[in-house]
Design a protein that fits this description.
single chain; globular
Amino acid sequence: MAFSSFNAFLQKLEKEGELRRISDPVATELQITELADREMKSPGGGKALLFDHATIAGKRSQFPVAINTMGSRRRMAMALGLESVEDLAAQMQFLLKAKPPRSFREAFTLLKNGIDVIHARPKHVRSGPCKDVIHLFPEGATASGFSLNDLPVLHCWPNDGGRFITLPTVYTKDPDTGDRNVGMYRMQVFDGTTSGMHWQVHKVGARHGKRYYERGERMPVAVAIGGDPAYTFAATAPLPDGLDEILFAGFARKKSVELVKCETVDIEVPADSDFVLEGYVQPGEVRAEGPFGDHTGFYTNVDDYPVFHITAITHRKDAVYPCTIVGVPPMEDFYMGAASVRVFLPVFKMNFPEIVDMALPAEGVFHNLVFVSIRKQYPWQAFKVMHGLWGMGQMMFAKYIVVVDEDCDVHNTSDVLFRLCANTDPQRDSTFIKNPSDSLDHATTLANMGSHMGFDATHKLPGEGYTRGWPELVKMSPEVKAWANQFSGT
Ligand SMILES: Cc1cc2nc3c(=O)[nH]c(=O)nc-3n(C[C@H](O)[C@H](O)[C@H](O)COP(=O)(O)O)c2cc1C
Ligand SMILES: [Mn+2]
């Protein structure tokens, strides 16, 4: 199910008791963060918050602020119009295994299983609610007086270098092929018409930027905020470079995304967006960005990043400003990352059929710690899986990978640590490799590169030189377990 607007999603959250509305004045400087952080740290991710009376430097914002809207398993599923994210994972799995339908009956089976590939293709429309109000900034001048400073952008943490837009979906094009990319890269507000553009070196936005630089051309960029939350999720999902996030969003929400041309740049954005920031990046131009209280739980240092010059801001009449905060885990983004892992597990399994399950525990902040369970068949298979993952897209960042047997629940960190401690001879069962590291990792000596470690915590085979006879895990018999249930009171 698709939402016709971000507001429609908020109404659904409210109806389901998942949203708390706050009408007292609350400052975009630090105060929203503190209230949101308390929700995010409460069991299961707390509630979404909607601030009707957010203030910017003491003045009431024209726009309400929504936060933590995807910050629980249930809300993350609701954002995609699902009961459970598993439903989308099942559709992905089905799609990967499906052969092109050869008959009406086969096509019907696909549809019955929720596979609707037709709607993956976007539609092009002439206008839309994102253009209710249009502010043009010729040559950087804010003629109407309206600017980026009128958006209720959070100053998240005390030592942040300024205000940061935390849920922007950034639309760029490959200048060689015209292919679109949508990525989520935070933006520090520098003034009313300029911001930072924090695409890290490994991301597709940065690759596009490099090509414009090499061609000596100005790079058109558009940033959409809000609209159907499926777009926001798609922008964060680790899709392979070249797979269009808008196709994925259309597939996920089972409705074609309606795209509309920007006013001042040749880029299309979803017509139902709450805000659209249009403009350009001048390749080669960089400016100090940060510090910023980051996903890692630490402030990332100031570093040079491209500058985004805004040539127009358009918005809905009833626009709501969605945002998030990142910091010491668990945070809202944990649920977004967990949903990505669920949805893309079928893709991993297609490449590595021995993979049973995978989890990125909150403590590892996405890729610092990856647990994988496998059905082991041959010697050193655990190492093959690690190396495969280290070579797959953003899994290249995985700092520690722990591989366990299929009977270990990777979503139970305690079970994984038990296997890790019990089943490894540290020297024999570990490996260090060299790989690119996440730009945000402050622990590596040099930025963007570092060592990565894998642990084989599976049972060891004679073929691996282990000939002492691997012991059996202590377990009660199923009959006695069933018998004992009568005493458990459930
Ligand atoms: C809340 C949030 C903020 C993010 N901020 C950034 C960022 O500032 N820079 C960045 O490179 N990636 C950031 N990411 C991760 C990217 O969105 C993610 O790697 C995405 O898959 C990149 O898309 P791409 O492969 O199309 O470049 C963020 C993710 C989330 C959930
Ligand atoms: Mn992409």
